[in-house]
Amino acid sequence: MIHSHNDYEQKVPFWYALGSGANSIEADVFLENKKLFVAHNQKDITKERTFENLYLNPIEKALEMNMINQESLQILIDIKTDAKTTLNQIVKSIQKYPKITAQKKISFVISGNQPKPEDYNSYPDFISFDYQKLENLTEDQWKKVALLSLSFPQYSKWNGKGGLTEDDLPKVTEVIKKAKSLGKPFRFWAIPDGKTSWEFFAHNGVDFINTDHPKECVEYVNSLEKRTFKNNIFSEIYQPKFSYLKKKSPVKNVILLIGDGNGLSQISSSVLANKGQLTLTQLKNIGLIKTTAADNFTTDSAAGATAFATGKKTKNRFIGVDAEGKKTQNITEILSEKGFNTGVITTDEIVGATPSAFYAHQKDRGMEKEIAEDLLTSKLTFFASGGKSKISTNHQFSVVNQLEEIGINKADKLVYFMSENGVPQVLKGRDNLLSNVVENGLNFLKNKKKPFFMMIEGAQIDSGGHSNNVGTIVTEGIDFDRAITKAIQFADQNPGTLVVITADHETGGFSIPHGDMKTSNIEGDFTTDDHSATLIPVFSYGSGSENFTGVYENNEIFHKILKAVKLK
Predict the structure, then answer these.
(1) Which Pfam families match (predicted)?
(2) Three-state SS across 363-415?
């Protein structure tokens, strides 16, 4: 629960904390001339800022309007003047508001200067106390204690950045444990006030988190569980042989892997959730691409994939056409003319933006019917995807229904559908389907005894970014690494294979503020539910991979691939 510390210093006292969802609100109270004033120091007292004006009247008004949605609302009254005389006046003031005292959800907790515990029971039921010691009390005295509070600086000088020191961490966790054993809600006061400290106290048993930023703190803490994911799906690390460094084989096969929405933070989350390593992180050649579209600072998948497939920047939503809308030959068409077989594998529907950029030519990614028609006349030798329901049964591809039959099939052109419509996410039972399809699909093309180009998309990392779902990002990223593993193993077994791994863009403005590698816990945070324009990593392996380092535009991927296979 969130405690609005020194709430009276907010621009709008009480109402701002109430609307933010805080469960506890603090007011420093002075008694002067039999009136209760709210201020930080006595010199700051003004006649209008009374306890009744700032808190009792608003509470009554909020009750009348049914605006107190919290299950409980605690008003922490920090007495700054004489304990008994001030508290007596507080009691008198509250008693003037029977609508408030009749509400069990509202409690008044006395902090600061207060009577001795032996006097607690002499006060009305609506008054309870903030006890500030770890010493035991009698059973009756404990009944009047609503809150147990201690000074955080007494145990640590932590500023809230990074983590507590090895010396301070056990001291702090031990005092929390001892305080909790007394059976009362617990808080520290004078804590560092930021997301890192909020996360620490929330995960270590502190019941009320002190903050001067109630809205931000409530939003952060309330979303913490949703944004924290414990991973139990792993990618087995493969150690590449790097034998291509010794033998310079000409490039015959190209495997382009695209993790849709897979920015550096997405990759990092999968690395950290996978015990600190992926097959991807074993690679040595790394570059960066700039992803802006021809008409927009931030690309979409259509323009991003079209840049990869055609070598030309284009407008968002355009598929296989240039910025003027003119049909542009794509890499599968170019390589087919040069004797290559070509394939596409995706965990999206086949008419999705990324896969369609490698065979279709339409002015809008939403033109699914026209895109599907382009597929029927495309140069693809093989594809595997979702979206069977979007494709006419009257097509040139032989359909294989058993995954294991892909690699041994002798058809000229082959398709394997993973689903009628969308492909299930890993979290919804997809298991190792992608990596198994990749392994079999690569064997199908290899058995044709011709060079080939294969585009493989891990499509649903992007879905996790759009939905701000950390678990989807992590598990889809790890599953994408399983596909990467199959590609790298294939390259080691088949000299002359170039593997390029990148993304069309980043999605979600994703970051990883906290986590635990030992338990594979990841806390993610987001700045958007859309794409961002951050630079995207490019990893490469095999013959010609040295050409993919550096920083360059996304459409250069196309030109670098053609250069690798000795085509202009």
Answers:
(1) Alk_phosphatase (PF00245)
(2) CCCCCHHHHHHHHHCCCCCEEEEECHHHCCCCCCCEECCCHHHCCCCCCCCEE
Q: Are 274 and 235 in contact (CB under 8 A)?
A: yes
- Token readout for 216 is 């931000």
CB 500 within 8 A of CB 254: yes
User: Which pair of structure tokens corresponds to residue 364?
Assistant: 């809008």
- CB-based contact 372:409 (threshold 8 Å): no
* Residue 64 near residue 70 (C-beta atoms within 8 A): no
What ranges do the domains of the chain cover?
2-229, 253-564
Token look-up 């008419």 returns 351
Closest CA to 185 of 221, 211, 210, 219: 210
d(CA 541, CA 544): 8
Interacting residues of 370 by C-beta distance below 8 A, sequence separation 6+: 360, 362
Q: Please say whether the beta carbons of 274 and 520 come within 8 A.
A: yes
Beta partners for 455? 256, 344
Other residues' Cβ atoms within 10 Å of the Cβ of residue 330: 27
d(CA 129, CA 141): 10
Residue pLDDT, tens place only, 421-454: 999 999 999 999 999 999 999 999 999 999 999 9
φ, ψ at 253 (rounded to 5°): -120, 140
Output the DSSP codes for 280-348: GGG--EEEEEE---SS-SS--HHHHHHHHHHSS---TT-BSB-TTS-B---HHHHHHHTT-EEEEEEEE
Identify the sign of the CA torsion 270, 273, 277, 278.
negative
Q: Minimal CA–CA distance to 87: which of 99, 95, 79? A: 79
- CB neighbours of residue 466 within 10 Å: 17
Question: Taking each helix axis from N to C terminus, what angle separates 470-493 and 433-446, rounded to the nearest 10 degrees?
Answer: 30
The pair of structure tokens assigned to 342 is: 């070509």
- Domain 2-229 bears CATH identifier 3.40.50.300: no
Could you tell me the pLDDT band of residue 393, with boundaries at 50, 70 and 90? confident
pTM (2 decimals)?
0.90
Query: pLDDT tens digit string along 117-144?
Result: 999 999 999 999 999 999 889 999 999 9
Q: What is the dihedral of CA 352, 450, 499, 272, to 10 degrees?
A: 70
Comparing CA positions, the residue from 77, 57, 60 lying closest to residue 68 is 60
525 Cβ contact list (under 8 Å, min separation 6): 227, 510, 511, 512, 513
